[in-house]
Amino acid sequence: MRVAIAGAGAVGRSIAGELLENGHEVLLVDKAPTAISVERVPLAEWLLADACEITSLDEAALQRCNVVIAATGDDKVNLVVSLLAKTEYGVPRVVARVNNPKNEWLFNESWGVDVAVSTPRLMSALVEEAVSVGDLVRLLRFSHGDANLVELTLPPESAIAGTQVGDVAWPEDTSLVTIIRGTRVLTPSQEETLEAGDELLFVAAQAREEQLEDLLSVRRED
């Protein structure tokens, strides 16, 4: 997989290193000469250019990329890169970094963003996830289909604890993708029995989140 990363700062270099370790082809693009540190990520391709300019993106051969990551520290730049990548080059997957949570509402399909990653929001969500039982926590937003990756730790009093996955009347537009039980990561089968304390990860339409939380957290009648 070929990945272009706009922004060769600490975030961009870190992402590049992880992708290279996983066997992907990575191009780092930055307009600041001081950011071009080939020795820090020697296996990556490097391009000194402004990722907001069509001529630069032509040079980067963005049309050959499977993924573009807009990882600069400027939200305006990340939005422009995302829009150009999607509309001018037809990049299948565009991931954008959100620096200011107030701008998160802009990072959607209209700007070519498939996945928006807000570090402050993600850190907050991870704190909530660590301490919350029975509350739905939004971990990641997907622009297409207005869907989110959400998590809920099943409380002991939940009405569906002890129920098989296939017997639960899940809301529409939701999909249970993973069950984390202790140190195990389980692929949910129809016969898998849900247990109190399970961490359940769903991809769910935002409009269904409240309904999903009610289903998972509703108390058993004594």
- Please estimate the helix content: 10-25%
Average pLDDT confidence is: 87
Order of helices and strands: EHEEHEHEEHEEEEEH
Strand element count: 11
How is the quaternary structure best described? single chain
- What is the strand content? 25-35%
Biggest β-sheet: count, sense, barrel? 11 strands, mixed
Mass-distribution shape: elongated
**What distance lies between the first and last C-alpha atoms, to the nearest angstrom?**
54 Å
Question: Strands of the largest sheet, in order across it?
Answer: 3-2-1-4-5-6-7-8-11-9-10
Rg measurement, Å: 20 Å
Unreliable sequence segments:
none
Structure class = alpha/beta
Discrete helix count: 5
Protein name: Trk system potassium uptake protein TrkA
Organism: Streptomyces mauvecolor
Keywords: Ion channel, Ion transport, NAD, Potassium, Potassium transport, Transport
Domain RCK N-terminal: 1-117
Question: How are the SSEs placed, and which strands pair?
Answer:
Layout: E1 2-6, H1 10-21, E2 25-30, E3 45-48, H2 54-59, E4 67-70, H3 75-87, E5 93-98, E6 115-118, H4 119-131, E7 137-142, E8 147-153, E9 174-181, E10 184-186, E11 199-205, H5 209-217
Parallel strand pairs: 1-2, 1-4, 2-3, 4-5, 5-6
Antiparallel strand pairs: 6-7, 7-8, 8-11, 9-10, 9-11
Pfam families: TrkA_C (PF02080), TrkA_N (PF02254)
Domain RCK N-terminal: 1-117
Domain RCK C-terminal: 137-218
Task: Describe the fold and architecture.
There is one protein chain. The chain is of the alpha/beta class and 222 residues long. Helices cover 24% and strands 27% of the residues. It contains five helices and eleven strands; from the N terminus they run βαββαβαββαβββββα. It has an eleven-stranded mixed sheet, with helices on both faces. β4 (67-70), α3 and β5 form a beta-alpha-beta unit. 32% of the residues are buried. Residues 1-117 form the RCK N-terminal domain. Residues 137-218 form the RCK C-terminal domain. This is Trk system potassium uptake protein TrkA. Keywords: Ion channel, Ion transport, NAD, Potassium, Potassium transport, Transport.
